[in-house]
Amino acid sequence: MCSIFGILDIKSDASALRTIALEMSKKLRHRGPDWSGIYTSERAILAHERLAIVGLNSGAQPLYSPDKKLILAVNGEIYNHKEIRARYQDTYDFQTDSDCEVILALYQDKGAELLEELNGIFAFALYDQEKDQFLIGRDHIGIIPLYQGHDEHGNYYVASEMKALVPVCKSISEFPPGSYFSSTDPEPYRYYLRDWTEYDAVKDNLSSKEELTEALEAAVKRQLMTDVPYGVLLSGGLDSSITSAIAKRYAAMRIEDDEQSAAWWPQLHSFAIGLEGAPDLKAAREVAEKIGTIHHEMTYTIQEGLDAIRDVIYHIETYDVTTIRASTPMFLLGRKIKAMGIKMVLSGEGADEIFGGYLYFHKAPNAQEFHEETVRKLLALNLFDCARANKSLAAWGVEGRVPFLDKEFIDVAMRLNPADKMCGNGKMEKHILRECFQDYLPDSIAWRQKEQFSDGVGYNWIDTLKSTAEAKISDQQMATAKFRFPYNTPTTKEGYVYREIFEELFPLESAARCVPGGPSVACSSAKAVEWDESFKNCIDPSGRAVKAVHNEAY
């Protein structure tokens, strides 16, 4: 992961703003510890902190067009950069080996319409010096974080994390995923539009397991492009086990040269974390033995997790209960991964949203409700699992990639007939995905019940978080919470604890509005709470809240 920090449409003294940019960009250096760069003019400032993954020797940023009139700062990876580079090799003089430089070539040809051409994870700020115009863009789902704001002079800011904006902006907001914003636009424009968001467009489709299998294998293979050592996060759940198994099949050869040479680091390393005796650890060992990874297992104590909560909230920039529960072990694991010299890992986020993998999907009343909930969940991932997966690892200078959220794969998976995805009536959640990849995995894993990451690391983790908050926050505090926190008022004592810490770290009212709220059962949207009467009396994001479905339900 890298970071970007930009000040655009400058209306005040640029020399003073340059000092601010350097100071604020430094707050993001954990994301990109390898090198720093800055561009400054009277109208725009772009700062960049680099984590070198591809093009190690020539990919320093900001990037410039050959005539130096286009300046680009990018956080991300462009998986189809080779195809785009080949398309423009006769019309654009590439200056570096960076995968991100193709954005400049595309911009010269297509302007803002370049976004749909990209398959990758990214957030970028581009300044066109000749036209005195800027273009801000973010990937289709919001896998890479990006925030925006304005200061008292009306200068426009963008940054990879809100911690770089809170000290200098009057108000901030999350830059919307799947969107771009240019100097000529009144507001961000959504470019990522898909027919599959409508049930009528997919309800009569045929579901091809062969096409689904090939699409995921291609996504994993694409995302193995790297010039540094990489690994896989292996929780022992279905999704991470599938991505790990596929990655192992391609690990021996170098993807960057179309498998013409042996990989520089041919041994695939896998990583798991949990409390002593956690169900995930046992499952992960079983998968690692089956697929042949070099497996690394980390155990942590509940006290170590509790001690990390404040740092987790600072880095993830949230007070959402589910996100903090799951981010804490991932944050701890990220530090261990970095210490072992790994700079990039694959992770399994996105499958539960695409395939209806959360246990509450068993209660979906029909295929239309099921599909519409998957769409809601997928298009809100930037607020939850994407933030966790990206920032937990970026805190230590590790990049996380998510093959299930590959742009091409999503189009295949979301166009499956929703009826073929549904669970219940004897069918397990994500059964179509299990059937596609059951030969890759031990049967005990291919048909293991969904376990949310925050549960799978050990049930005592969540139970202790609840009891600790119960002892710390009084009933009187909860009774008056709406006066202290009128927006998104905490509904549990655990949520109250996290909100207190968040407000201390990010004391800007608009920062709190960057965090979602509303009732949820086992990670459901507020809409899905209506599916079952029992949900209304058990508003808890743990998978164990789904009675008569989870094997260890409350």
Automatic annotation (TrEMBL):
Q: Which GO terms describe its biological process?
A: asparagine biosynthetic process
Which reaction is recorded as catalysed by this protein? L-aspartate + L-glutamine + ATP + H2O = L-asparagine + L-glutamate + AMP + diphosphate + H(+)
Q: Which Pfam families match?
A: Asn_synthase (PF00733), GATase_7 (PF13537)
Which pathway or pathways does this protein act in? Amino-acid biosynthesis; L-asparagine biosynthesis; L-asparagine from L-aspartate (L-Gln route): step 1/1
Q: Span of the secretion signal?
A: none
EC number(s): the record gives: 6.3.5.4
Q: Which residues form the Glutamine amidotransferase type-2 domain?
A: 2-186
Is Cell membrane found in the keyword set?
no
Record-annotated active site: 2
What positions does the entry give for L-glutamine binding? 99
UniProt GO MF annotations: asparagine synthase (glutamine-hydrolyzing) activity; ATP binding
The record's Gene Ontology cellular component field reads: cytosol
- Assigned keywords, A-Z: Amino-acid biosynthesis, Asparagine biosynthesis, ATP-binding, Glutamine amidotransferase, Ligase, Nucleotide-binding
Write out the residues that bind ATP. 233, 273, 347-348
In chain numbering, the residues marked as site (Important for beta-aspartyl-AMP intermediate formation) are: 349
Q: Which domain of life is it from?
A: Bacteria
NCBIfam families listed in its UniProt record: asn_synth_AEB, PRK09431.1
Family as reported in the entry's similarity comment: Belongs to the asparagine synthetase family.
What the entry lists under PANTHER family is as follows:
ASPARAGINE SYNTHETASE, ASPARAGINE SYNTHETASE [GLUTAMINE-HYDROLYZING]
Q: What is the name of the protein in this document?
A: asparagine synthase (glutamine-hydrolyzing)
Which organism is this protein's natural source?
A: bacterium 19PA01SH03
